[in-house]
């Protein structure tokens, strides 16, 4: 069966047994950085990679082998997709033969080390900047249009969730001592404004390409991640106030920007702001209440630079492996930068069903169920 035939095939099934075998399924297009990369960096020449054990050790579909995800198991979009009925995870856009799958489950364009600003992540060499990620989506869309025509493509895209999880690396590189900006450092407000306006440009571009349901994830409390705690010598039990205040400033400007977009575009599209900051902050602060035993150290790799999480080859090579905690479900952080699957599960649940303090103007489950009128049906 070719791809071309699938919609017709589904339509027949729908007529015959609508309630038994629904063909409508969840699809999503994922953009962002290493928090949501599902393997794109495996295909790039880059220092930002998660292609060796123990990354992926708890990822069931791969049998515990690394997939390029920067965590031990599933990412937040993986978990949300599963809950909303996705049958498989959107494949990385750089993997061979990915585009043909687009009309089923969506595609993942995210890339570790990337940021909103083009220059972010140059230290790591290879990465897909946000602009490039959307360029790749543009190519996927042309493929869909060739296959299904403009109208069916727009209809399909109008139902899909477009999630964008980016901005952490822009802020981390702002604080990196070797940053090219460190000589004549711009003030945080200028950084935040550049981030929001560049991101807004890219969101509008996606909307022009047919995206209607957006989830834009704010930046988490970077001042509390093990990397920042160690490099900024933060006393135990505290977070970097300076880093977190730049994050909060960005998030509030982002939220305002999304409110503006919602007012401008009316019913034509919905931009959901996902407040991952407060969810993570609460979880880190009260980690015991959430079932964790460690809220500030990495499960894998050291507490100190270079923080590398890796596994030596062979069973007797302890000495050449980095530290790996014994119970991964008891740690908020998997490595010095990224949360564990256990933490991702808690955050995903909140973003799916949370109240307006977590997701506004609606949560992700409501967004998924909101009918949106595709472009061609509007005057
Ligand atoms: C990709 O598709 C081409 C032809 O369409 C095929 O020859 C090739 O084996 C496929 N590669 C993978 C990895 O599936
Ligand atoms: C994007 O950010 C850069 C700084 O990296 C800034 O100079 C530029 O004006 C911004 N572009 C837009 C469209 O906001
Ligand atoms: C490897 O580590 C295990 C447990 O940590 C220990 O029992 C064993 O002796 C170590 N082996 C070597 C070769 O160091």
How much helix, percentage-wise, in residues?
25-40%
Q: Which strands sit side by side, in order, in the main sheet?
A: 1-2-3-4-7
Q: Which CATH architecture is right?
A: 3-Layer(aba) Sandwich
What count of structural domains? 1
The amount of beta strand, in percent, is: 5-15%
Name the average pLDDT: 88
Keywords: Hydrolase, Lipid degradation, Lipid metabolism, Signal
Protein name: GDSL esterase/lipase At5g41890-like
Signal peptide: 1-25
Family: Belongs to the 'GDSL' lipolytic enzyme family.
Keywords:
Rossmann fold, alpha/beta, 379 residues, binds 2-acetamido-2-deoxy-beta-D-glucopyranose, two-stranded parallel ribbon, disordered N terminus
What does this protein look like?
Belongs to the 'GDSL' lipolytic enzyme family. It holds the Pfam family Lipase_GDSL. This is GDSL esterase/lipase At5g41890-like. This protein has 379 residues and is α/β, with parallel strands linked by helices. It has one domain (3-291, 345-369): Rossmann fold (3-Layer(aba) Sandwich). It is 37% helix and 8% strand. The chain contains twelve helices and seven strands. It has helices at residues 6-17, 76-83, 102-105, 130-148, 150-159, 168-175, 188-208, 226-231, 241-265, 276-285, 341-353, 364-369, and strands spanning 28-32, 161-165, 213-217, 270-274, 294-298, 331-333, 359-360. The strands form two sheets. It has a five-stranded mixed sheet. A two-stranded parallel ribbon has the order 5-6. Helix 2 (76-83) crosses helix 11 (341-353) and helix 10 crosses helix 11. The chain is globular. The two termini are 36 Å apart. Mean pLDDT is 88; it is low at 1-23. Residues 316, 318 line the site of one 2-acetamido-2-deoxy-beta-D-glucopyranose (NAG).
